[in-house]
What does this fold into?
Amino acid sequence: MQNRAKLKYIELNKMVNSLNEAIELVWINKDHRFEKWLKDSVIQRFEYTIEWVWKFLKYVLLEDFSQDEAFAKSVLKSSYKAKLINNLEIFLSMVERRNRLSHDYHEDFSEMSFDIIINDYIDEINDLINKFSSKYDK
It folds into this structure.
């Protein structure tokens, strides 16, 4: 029987692939009429991806370290201590940004967030997936 962390990883991997595809579409899009919608798609995919990131890490902590954390920030802090993530501040920033994007829409903040997602966050998210691929991609 598959464990919860593996099941979460499989879904998270699909989400990260979807996020990467959306980012790629923004770059190859030549029709600027669709640019805003494509960027919104990246932001939406980031929102649900980062939600799954911390939930995946929650199950890794539970199954591999017998740690049961309930909240995103505590999961990320424990994940950092367990060396599951490399940059605590950037992951905490992702959760904060996701929360703000989900609850308080401002066009300027969304545009700035898009830039941060593609320039800072996506590499950390991809690194996380790559770190666990040898364990869960079997």
Observations:
- The mean pLDDT is 92.
- The chain has one domain: 4-136.
